[in-house]
# Entry
Amino acid sequence: IDNMSGNKPLKVKPVTASQDGLRSSGAVSTLKAQDVAINGSTVQEKVAITLDEAIGRFKKGVGLFKIAKYSDAIIEFNKFTEDYPEHVLAGSAQYHVGESYYMMGQHRLAAPEYEKVVTSFSSSPRVSSAMVRLAECQSHNGNAKEAANTVAIVKDLYDGSPVLDK
# Structure
């Protein structure tokens, strides 16, 4: 991020062609991020535009969710996780896919979406909430033993968390 904002210099190695492909010449030059242009925009501008687009798309999904347009929210959040799988909000987007199904009473469809939060976005702050909802879905789907196991895991991992008050 410091390099993208121009606070630290970028190190660039020139590349030259050879008979066996490309190789580095070994020379290193230093550039500021503001000096590096991509299609007429600086790297810093490109990063800012991408972040704005991602946050805007996430907010659009949240807006759809808040007005109970759950099917549209699912589409928007799925696009978000496909386009920005490494974004800090990707786990929250995945969680909202599960929440959208849950709010529609589609517990069989919600459960695997919550599982994705746990498995694919394990560093997301939504993991504990997703596990609680997963247990609720398991219970709704007639899997009381599985739900009890999930609750036990959540209690063990997140003892004292407000999410357990559910």
Q: What stands out?
A: The helical segments are 2-5, 43-66, 70-83, 90-103, 107-120, 127-140, 144-157.
